[in-house]
Design a protein that fits this description.
CATH topology of the largest domain: Glutaredoxin
Number of domains: 2
Order of helices and strands: HHEEHHEEEEEH
Largest sheet: 4 strands, mixed
CATH architecture of the largest domain: 3-Layer(aba) Sandwich
CATH class of the largest domain: Alpha Beta
Number of helices: 5
Radius of gyration: 37 Å
Number of strands: 7
Strand order of the largest sheet: 3-2-6-7
Strand content: 15-25%
Length: about 180
């Protein structure tokens, strides 16, 4: 005699035997074929995603000049002059002369400022940021593009436009910072 559980199982199996080829056929279309299609579609979708990702990375790396950030810990002068290409220098000799004077005066005052505890930084950016403590200030050089940004922790900035002589830089630094400079 058969076990009742086994006979029920056989009965269910035999009862569905007519539908079984239909179920197998349906499973074949539901299971195997869509998986292949899904795999192919996934491959097709990954290609544009990969291309877009690579293009995005390429654009992110092509940023010409990031905005400089100067962190202020002590009295500082940021001397700014816009970037000038060689072609612009050749076409405008006055620009070359102004830049030459700017660099010469900055070199002249570097050591006395350093001895007085004042940092002199130079940038060729038209836009930069100053971080003093938790405060971040943005600065745009304006139309002239040449000048000096005097800043000390706890003080409001002082800005001078145009190229200053070495004596002019030292005199302004003495007045603003209140520090004796040799």
């Amino acid at each position: 005699m058969q076990n009742p559980a086994t006979s029920v199982e056989l009965w269910r199996f035999e009862d569905q035997s007519l539908a079984r080829p239909h179920l197998c056929e349906a499973n074949r279309f539901r299971g195997a074929l869509p998986r292949r299609k899904l795999a192919n579609m996934t491959r097709i979708l990954w290609l544009p995603c990969f291309v877009i990702l690579c293009a995005g990375i390429g654009f992110a790396q092509s940023v010409a000049n990031p905005v400089p950030v100067f962190v202020i810990h002590r009295p500082t002068i940021v001397a700014f002059f816009p970037h000038v290409s060689d072609k612009e220098m050749e076409s405008n000799p006055d620009t070359n002369e102004v830049l030459s004077d700017f660099q010469a005066y900055n070199s002249e005052v570097h050591d006395p400022l350093q001895k007085a505890g004042i940092e002199l930084r130079q940038t060729d950016a038209r836009f930069f940021r100053i971080r003093a403590g938790k405060t971040v200030r943005s600065f745009q050089t304006g139309k002239k593009g040449v000048g000096y940004y005097f800043i000390a922790p706890g003080k409001a900035p002082h800005i001078e436009y145009g190229v200053m002589t070495g004596d002019g830089i030292l005199t302004t630094a003495r007045k603003y910072f209140g520090i004796p400079i040799p």
